[in-house]
Write a sequence for this structure.
């Protein structure tokens, strides 16, 4: 039972912003939106997470719609090293707080 | 130090062998996890340890046996595996188990091949 829906792939030019969409229309009020990425042959890497408000850190920005049914991960200046599979995960707390990875979106950054 | 280390990086074993995977973190995290990742698939949770006690077993076959000797170490003992168990095995840790908004830090994984 996938909680999130992501396009299978997208690409962007190096130096441009990469906007990765995610739909989570069944999200509950206490569930967080997490983003991880996995560069080929490496372990997943935490990027960012949010509950209601938009969030920004040194890696990315997370924009969550007001109804919380979708979000967008923004990599402001994509580099070739950002080529990876990006996972959008809805995660609760307590007994429902497991990380359940979906298929993710493959981002290809082209020179 | 935000590193989770895993050894070995690669492991080839026969179906009758017994081997162990090791995971270590020195971030003071109290939760540790094992995931399995088949080729071109997302990671799947296998086990969760919370304060050194097994808290979640995702119906994993008994040929996989986890162990948490202390808060920094996590082992996965393997016995009588099948070729379909060949996968990347990932270890992760987080500050608190299953708590509010605690991100997980992943190791690089052990690539296991069962022959």
């Amino acid at each position: 039972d996938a909680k999130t829906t992501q396009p299978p792939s997208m690409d962007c030019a190096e130096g441009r912003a990469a906007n990765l969409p995610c739909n989570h229309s069944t999200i509950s009020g206490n569930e967080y939106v997490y983003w991880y990425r996995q560069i080929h042959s490496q372990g997943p890497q935490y990027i960012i997470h949010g509950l209601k408000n938009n969030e920004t850190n040194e890696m990315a920005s997370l924009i969550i719609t007001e109804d919380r049914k979708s979000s967008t991960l923004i990599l402001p200046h994509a580099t070739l090293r950002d080529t990876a599979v990006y996972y959008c995960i809805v995660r609760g707390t307590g007994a429902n707080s497991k990380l359940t990875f979906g298929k993710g979106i493959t981002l290809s950054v082209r020179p | 130090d935000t590193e989770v280390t895993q050894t070995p990086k690669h492991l080839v074993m026969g179906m009758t062998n017994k081997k162990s995977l090791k995971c270590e973190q020195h971030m003071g995290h109290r939760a540790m996890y094992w995931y399995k990742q088949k080729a071109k698939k997302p990671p799947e949770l296998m086990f969760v340890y919370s304060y050194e006690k097994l808290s979640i077993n995702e119906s994993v076959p008994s040929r996989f046996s986890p162990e948490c000797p202390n808060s920094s170490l996590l082992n996965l003992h393997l016995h009588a595996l099948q070729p379909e168990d060949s996968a990347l095995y990932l270890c992760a840790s987080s500050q608190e188990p299953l708590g509010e908004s605690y991100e997980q830090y992943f190791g690089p994984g052990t690539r296991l091949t069962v022959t």
